[in-house]
Design goal:
With about 350 residues, this protein is an alpha+beta fold. The chain is built from ten helices and twelve strands. Strand 1 and strand 2 form a beta hairpin.
Length: about 350
């Protein structure tokens, strides 16, 4: 039996073949057990107070790629014990032989499986953060989670490519990074405005001068913010048009966030004719203040703001609660205007336009 095990076949003994394939078979059997155990230990270490549902979601995300990584890692270690048969050891191109090619393929498979495992971990963390962001009324955090998830995925892809170039092709990654930095500097100069908008998007995400759904006024446009992107902000205006504003302008310009107001304001300017006496004006001010004494009006001001050769200007300002709907607010403003007209009629006071005479001379 010992003689049989010592016999060589394709430059390797039968014992060595049995040991290698036995190790691969054992790895194939126990990989799921080991991967589940490692995933459970990692979950307890990083997410101590998480619910069982999150634990199951973590296992669904991690166990399969961890299986592949462990199996490939153990299989490569086992096959490394074998000697490449002479019949299979040949040059492919110049100084590259079949053994080097097989090693490169094995290293690439391990690196790809490891990067896939890391991407799945990033996806799980992004899923947890997105669940927390959905609980908040502000939906800006959702966009931030999606951005960072895609950003870290791209970084992992780049790291994987650099590792494959270094370990599989023996490429000097340092020179490549130096070249990429020079190219990156040139691209940064060429795309200056895009980078400014990207930085401005981070300012909007973290400073939060406005969020998705807010009613804002910017550059003589008023509308609801429908989307905050990495380059621009989309606004649906009160004319139902859809405008795109670069994020740099949204950061640099003055923005009126109407959704954050604490009260709604009503402005009424009554231009009273010059025929009205001072006594009539003094009498009308308390009457106007009495009209504004309503439950919906929180505070108000009535005063004679100007007088001149055309009219006496009576300014009326009142503030209402923000809890009112827009229809209720417009109805209140309409009623106040109508009551002011009735007040002027009851006092026999004419508006400035009513006492205007037009004479046509031939």
């Amino acid at each position: 039996m010992n003689d049989f095990l010592q016999q060589e076949f394709l430059n390797n003994s039968v014992r060595l073949y049995l040991e290698v394939f036995g190790a691969i078979l054992i790895a194939l059997i126990i990989k799921r057990i080991i991967s589940k155990y490692l995933a459970a230990v990692s979950f307890k270490f990083f997410f101590k107070a998480a619910s069982p549902l999150r634990r199951q979601a973590f296992l669904d995300f991690v166990v399969a790629p961890l299986d592949n990584f462990l199996f490939l890692f153990l299989a490569v270690i086992a096959f490394d014990k074998l000697t490449i048969p002479v019949i299979l050891d040949f040059k492919i191109i110049r100084q590259v032989n079949s053994g080097d090619a097989l090693s490169a393929v094995a290293y690439a498979a391990i690196i790809i499986s490891f990067i896939r495992l890391c991407i799945r971990l990033v996806s799980y963390v992004a899923l947890i953060m997105e669940e927390k962001a959905n609980l908040a009324a502000d939906q800006t955090d959702n966009q931030l989670v999606v951005f960072f998830r895609d950003f870290f995925r791209v970084i992992l892809f780049i790291i994987g490519i650099l590792l494959i170039l270094h370990f599989c092709f023996n490429y000097d990654v340092g020179n490549l990074l130096t070249g990429l930095s020079l190219v990156g500097a040139a691209i940064a100069l060429a795309t200056k405005e895009s980078l400014e908008n990207l930085i401005a998007s981070f300012i909007i995400f973290f400073d939060k001068p406005f969020t998705t759904g807010d009613l804002v006024k910017v550059q003589n446009f008023t509308g609801n913010v429908e989307r905050i992107g990495l380059r621009s902000t989309r606004i649906r205006t009160d004319y139902k048009t859809y405008i795109t504003v670069p994020n740099k302008q949204m950061v640099d310009t003055i923005i009126d966030n109407i959704s954050l107001r604490t009260q709604r304001r009503i402005d009424i300017s009554l231009e009273i004719g010059l025929s009205a006496t001072a006594a009539q004006l003094k009498e009308i001010i308390p009457s106007a203040e009495k009209i504004l004494q309503q439950d919906a009006v929180e505070n108000s001001f009535v005063y004679l703001s100007d007088t001149g050769q055309n009219a006496h200007v009576l300014t009326i300002i009142c503030f209402t609660s923000i809890t009112q709907s827009l229809d209720e607010f417009n109805a209140l403003r309409s009623n106040i205007n109508l009551e002011m007209i009735d007040l002027l009629n009851s006092k026999n006071i004419e508006l400035a336009a009513a006492s205007m005479d037009i004479k046509i001379k031939r």
